[in-house]
Specification:
alpha/beta; six-stranded parallel β-sheet; 14% strand; elongated
Length: 446
């Protein structure tokens, strides 16, 4: 098939590249001329394992093209995906202005029958607005004879760091459509990705729109629930790791997303929980659980700094802390809503200095921590230089290289052998044997 995808962020670029990998011809459209030029030159604007080589190969072989010009891509496309950002507004509602702008641009250049797909995470009812926008533009056009279209909701379920594999081997595909013609074309497109017999779920449009928010809110709920259990463990002397094993072994619950930590971040969970709460307000439904999930997570991001202040006192002037991991999760450079932002901000506000290291998020971190003066934070080139002369180590992101480090070397570089483990990566008994003071989350009293 011939496909256009508007937006070259995580969702758009991964989706377009994977569609091209399966033999389709794909146009990736973006209004950012610099980004398109970089992609034409084989430069990838995001870090996602496996994506760069796949982009270059498909572009080289003529299946994947990049442009800022809708007129080049849309007229020859059977399906046009909208994969632009929907950032939260002040009230938490997702902002759909970029989705509607993309729909308008597509409408001005469509020829024949075209399926317009909402791939962006959008509030319930957005497909109706997209349809109305396109109809309005078509009515204005003098050359729209024979132009027909359908709107489909096709939410994405990609995990940053493994997004390419998630797309090529999805555990499910959700297609929301009220048109049998569109449904059959979408099924034909996605069958090549579901040979593992995982389902393609077809439903009405609004159910598909709700599904995305419900899925992310459920996962976020599990994280916040375990963080509350971890707080209880710290007070009562339990071990949250043992609790996780005890409840996760129940087949009705499972182990996934039951890790206590310094909070979740990224482009999806925080934004989608906020929109779910806002959607409830718009229709008079109080989303009590989702509201609590957000509140627990916001508080959890301050926990590491609170532990440090409890250990060293409220005045941290003259203190320096090494910080391993800035991105919100491993295998990405994404800093959106990353717990590291809160931790660094809290510590610097109390006079501390930070020596940070992250394998990939170096440049993105400078952008998201631009409010921190250069005197208060440094971005080290390797994990060991961050430790030199620091009072303690803070682990924020569980990159693999941090999981089994040389603890003797850590002790030799720090002023004192103290670790604040925001991801419960290190075993308390092992650290005690090595003479390291470990502060973790929910694994007993500190």
């Amino acid at each position: 098939m011939n496909i256009s995808i508007v937006g070259t962020g995580y969702v758009g670029l991964v989706s377009g590249t994977c569609f091209a990998e399966m033999g389709n011809h794909v146009w990736c459209i973006d209004i950012d001329k610099n980004k398109i030029q970089r992609l034409e030159n084989g430069e990838i604007p995001i870090y996602e394992p496996g994506l760069e080589e796949m982009v270059r190969r498909n572009h080289r072989e003529g299946r994947l093209d990049f442009t800022t010009d809708y007129a080049r891509a849309v007229p020859e496309s059977d399906i046009c995906f909208i994969a632009v950002g929907t950032p939260p507004g002040e009230d938490g509602s997702a902002d759909t202005q970029y989705v509607l702008a993309a729909a308008e641009s597509i409408a001005r250049h469509m020829k024949g029958y075209t399926i317009v797909v909402d791939k962006s995470t959008v509030p319930v009812g957005t497909a109706d607005k997209v349809r109305d926008k396109i109809n309005g533009i078509i009515k204005e056009r003098k050359d729209a004879a024979g132009v027909e279209f359908d709107v489909v909701s096709n939410p994405e379920f990609l995990k940053e760091g493994v997004a390419v594999n998630d797309f090529l081997r999805p555990d499910r595909v959700v297609i929301g459509s009220d048109s049998e013609r569109a449904r059959q074309m979408m099924l034909s497109l996605y069958r090549q990705f579901t040979e593992n017999e995982h389902p393609i779920i077809t439903t009405d449009i609004k159910s598909a729109e709700i599904t995305k928010y419900a899925a992310n809110a459920m996962l976020a709920t599990r994280i916040s629930f375990m963080n509350e259990i971890a707080a209880l463990c710290d007070k009562l002397g339990g071990d949250v790791k043992a609790v996780r094993q005890g409840i996760g072994s129940d087949s009705r619950i499972g182990m996934s997303f039951l890790y206590a930590s310094c909070g979740y971040g990224g482009s999806c969970f925080p934004k989608d929980v906020k929109e779910l709460v806002a959607a409830g307000k718009r229709c008079g439904v109080e989303m009590k659980i989702a509201t609590a999930v957000e509140a627990v997570n916001n508080a959890q991001k301050h926990l590491v700094a609170e532990r440090i202040l409890a250990r060293y006192g409220q005045d941290l002037k003259g203190r320096t802390f090494a910080l391993w991991g800035l991105a919100f999760k491993p295998q990405t450079d994404d800093m959106r809503e990353a717990p590291a932002i809160t931790i660094v901000s809290d510590l610097v506000a109390h006079g501390a200095k930070i020596k940070s290291y992250d394998p990939e998020a170096y440049e993105m971190a400078k952008k998201y921590l631009s409010h921190i003066s250069a005197d208060s934070i440094s971005y080290e080139k390797d994990m060991w230089s961050a430790l030199e002369g620091a009072d303690a180590l803070i682990l924020v992101t569980e990159w693999k290289q941090f999981r089994q480090p040389d603890f003797d070397r850590i002790k030799s570089l720090l002023k004192e052998p103290v670790i604040f483990d925001g991801r419960n990566q290190y075993d308390p008994k092992t650290m005690e044997e090595k003479g390291i003071e470990l502060h973790c989350i929910g694994r007993g009293k500190i």
